[in-house]
Design goal:
The complex is a heterodimer. By secondary structure, chain A is mainly β. Chain A is built from no helices and nine strands. Helix content of chain A is 0%, strand content 47%. Classes of the chains: A mainly beta, B mainly beta. At the A-B interface, strand 3, strand 4 and strand 8 of A face strand 4, strand 5, strand 9 and strand 10 of B.
Chain lengths: 111, 116
C-alpha cells in the first residue's frame, strides 16, 4: 500500500481557493488517488479520485503530477462549510478491500 | 434511499459487557467495512467484507468479531468491552471493494460508544 503524507493543518480565507497537497511518492501504477473529507464528527464524504489525469467535478479539482508522486486537491472558492478534515488515500487492486485512512489535513476556512 | 444505517447512535457499556453494533445498507453494495475513530485521530479499519460470507481483518481487529450472512447487513460484535474501545464507529459500503475505477465509499452517521 502506498503511504500518503499530508500537512496536519491549513488555513484558507473564505472565497479563496484552497489547495491541499498530498505526497504519495511510493504509489504504484495501479493505485488511484482518492480524496474524502469529514465535516465535524459526521461520516466521511467522497470528493474525487483520479489515476494520472487531472479530474474535476462539482465539488473540487484534482491535480496529479506527471510522475504521480504527489497531488493537490483544489476547492476553487472555499466557504465556511468546507471546514473539515481532508483525507488523501492511495488505493488500487492490490489493496483488495483495505482502504486505509491516514491522519488527514484539517482545513480551517476563515471569514 | 436510506443509504448506510447504523444503530444505535449512542451506547454506554460497562467493562466486560458484550454488544453488537448494527450496520445495514440498501444499495446492494458488495463491500462493507467498519472503522473506528478515536478523538482527534483518523479512521482505522477494523474489519471488512467483499461479499456475503467473506470477511477479513483490517488494521485493528482485536476484540471485534464480524460476520456477513446477507448482502445488506454487516454487524460488529464487541466480545468483552474494554475502555480502550471507547470510540466512534463508522460503517461504510461501496459497490465493490475490488473495483478500483469507481470506488466511492458511503459512510453511515456513526455510533458513539463509551466503555466505563
Amino acid at each position: 500500500d502506498a503511504k500518503t503524507t499530508q500537512p496536519t493543518s491549513m488555513d484558507c480565507a473564505e472565497g479563496r481557493a484552497a489547495n491541499l497537497p498530498c505526497n504519495h511518492s511510493t504509489i504504484s501504477g495501479n493505485e488511484y488517488v482518492y480524496w474524502y473529507r469529514q465535516i465535524h464528527s459526521q461520516g466521511p464524504q467522497y470528493i474525487i479520485h483520479g489515476l494520472k489525469n487531472n479530474e474535476t467535478n462539482e465539488m473540487a479539482s484534482l491535480i496529479i503530477t506527471e510522475d504521480r508522486k504527489s497531488s493537490t486537491l483544489i476547492l476553487p472558492h472555499a466557504t465556511l462549510r468546507d471546514t473539515a478534515v481532508y483525507y488523501c488515500i492511495a488505493y488500487g487492486s492490490s489493496n483488495t478491500g483495505k482502504l486505509i485512512f491516514g491522519q488527514g489535513t484539517t482545513l480551517q476556512v476563515k471569514p | 434511499n436510506a443509504g448506510v444505517t447504523q444503530t444505535p447512535k449512542f451506547q454506554v457499556l460497562k467493562t466486560g459487557q458484550s454488544m453488537t453494533l448494527q450496520c445495514a445498507q440498501d444499495m446492494n453494495h458488495e463491500y462493507m467495512s467498519w472503522y473506528r475513530q478515536d478523538p482527534g485521530m483518523g479512521l482505522r479499519l477494523i474489519h471488512y467484507s467483499v461479499g456475503a460470507g467473506i470477511t477479513d481483518q483490517g488494521e485493528v481487529p482485536n476484540g471485534y468479531n464480524v460476520s456477513r450472512s446477507t448482502t445488506e447487513d454487516f454487524p460488529l460484535r464487541l466480545l468483552s468491552a474494554a475502555p480502550s474501545q471507547t470510540s466512534v464507529y463508522f460503517c461504510a459500503s461501496s459497490y465493490s471493494g475490488l473495483a478500483v475505477t469507481n470506488e466511492k465509499l458511503f459512510f453511515g452517521s456513526g455510533t458513539q460508544l463509551s466503555v466505563l
